[in-house]
Write a structure and sequence with these properties.
The termini are close together. The protein has an eight-stranded mixed sheet, sandwiched between helices. Strands 11-10-9-12-13-14 form a six-stranded parallel sheet, with helices on both faces. It folds into two domains: about 210 residues, Rossmann fold; about 180 residues, Glycogen Phosphorylase B (Rossmann fold, 3-Layer(aba) Sandwich). Helix content is about 45%, strand content about 20%. Helix 5 packs parallel to helix 7. Strand 3 and strand 4 form a beta hairpin. By secondary structure, it is α/β, with parallel strands linked by helices.
Length: about 400
């Protein structure tokens, strides 16, 4: 297959669902993937390069932080996406695949009416609903712009994209249901949940010199965005320390602003557990997973909002791939994975429920090891990107 991939991911891409699924798996199967991405770093001129054996058309960007810089960055990105008009005329693409971009998707849908290529859309997050939610709750950086963006994205997605695309890849079974309730055809949707690279994890699992280092009692891996309310885990820690006063908690990740991590630090100080809380900041994946390998119990809380219900958490799968037991809260994707794998405990989003589950696991190393083994067996059988690529490849071949 010959694919033109247009994504909201910056160059060079780093999200595993992009780098592993299309950058590695699909290319290794002999498919050609050309990319339209815009630069992560300040870039005044567009350029063409190669990445993972593929051609990448990288658009210029404005990396400034002011509103004008951000607006110009989006404009530059759209101009780069419009290169699909020329590229689709010069190359015999079977598919134009657009991920998480709305204006580009409209252009792709119109373009494919006049080209042999088929238009596929990939939605990884409910962006229209998220923008409107953040504007409503006051967590948006620019509330008015977020509200306008939410309305425009809603119109683009539910009045055009879901009807014009030949197929729609989405993040989870819950997202399929949500899209169907807004008019999408269930028969032309495929859920593509998050997975992991088996090859990468196997090489990490036995080369980690830190596994003999001091154990970490509790660990959270992922973003610390304020909207995710990570101070919840600090309150859970305080509850756990009423029974086990020496338990520690490490956050492997960072927020987008100082206020995100300050929320955690303030809660730790208020509850007198500052000495038991560590925030590492962003780390390369191999470094982050070294922390995971040392953890006794890994945590995957999702603040219960409709916006996050359709997500597919990467951290849950990565924990299990490392053979770690997980405590998570009730959430469509997490509940499904834990029920099928028996690789952890799924509890209500309550401090006492989380702390009781953690204490139960901390006091029983055999139970932790047994659950960790079952979780690893499940994700090895179901969530490697080689398995996920089979599903994606089959859906695309069916269209041909």
């Amino acid at each position: 297959m010959n694919i033109l991939f247009i994504s909201s991911d910056k160059y060079p891409p780093f999200r595993v669902d992009v780098t592993e699924l299309f950058g590695k798996e699909m290319v290794s199967r002999g498919h050609t993937v050309d990319w339209l991405l815009h630069s992560e770093e300040q870039c005044d001129e567009s350029f063409t390069t190669t990445w993972s054996g593929s051609t990448v058309y990288v658009g210029r960007t404005d990396a400034g932080e002011r509103l004008w810089n951000r607006l110009r960055k989006h404009w530059y990105s759209f101009l780069n996406d419009c290169r699909m008009l020329r590229l689709s005329r010069e190359n015999a693409y079977d598919f134009i695949l657009v991920k998480d971009k709305f204006l580009a998707a409209i252009v792709a849908g119109l373009t494919c009416r006049h080209r042999p290529a088929k238009f596929i859309y990939w939605l990884s997050y409910p962006f229209p609903e998220a923008s409107l939610y953040e504007a409503k709750t006051g967590t948006a950086r620019y509330p008015i712009l977020y509200r306008i963006r939410g309305w425009l994205f809603d119109i683009a997605l539910y009045r055009f994209i879901v009807y014009q695309c030949e197929h729609l890849f989405c993040q989870s079974e819950q997202m399929k249901k949500d899209l169907q309730s807004r008019g999408a055809d269930l028969t032309k949707m495929t859920a593509v949940p998050m997975g992991f690279s088996e090859e990468k994890f196997r090489s990490m699992a036995f080369s980690d010199s830190s596994k003999n280092s001091e154990d970490i009692d509790l660990l959270y891996l992922g973003t610390l965005l304020g909207a995710r309310r990570m101070d919840f885990l600090v309150r859970v820690l305080a509850e756990v320390r009423k029974t086990k006063p020496n338990v520690n908690l490490i956050f492997v990740g960072d927020g987008e602003a100082d206020a995100d991590t300050q929320q955690i630090l303030d809660a730790a100080q208020e509850l007198s557990v500052s000495n038991a809380v560590t925030i590492t900041g962003f780390l390369p994946q191999d470094e982050a997973l070294k922390y995971v390998q040392r953890a006794k119990v890994c945590l995957s809380p999702f603040y219960p909002t409709p916006i996050l219900n359709s997500t597919s958490p990467t951290k849950l799968i990565e924990y299990m791939a490392m053979g770690k037991v997980v405590v998570a809260n009730d959430h469509p994707e997490q509940s499904l994975v834990i029920e099928r794998s028996q690789g952890g405990l799924c509890v209500p989003y309550e401090e006492k429920a989380f702390s009781d589950a953690i204490l139960y696991l901390l006091e029983d190393p055999c139970k932790r090891n047994d659950m960790g083994r079952r979780g690893k067996e499940y994700v090895m059988a179901n969530r490697t990107y080689s398995k996920i690529a089979n599903v994606v490849e089959s859906a695309m071949k069916d269209l041909l």
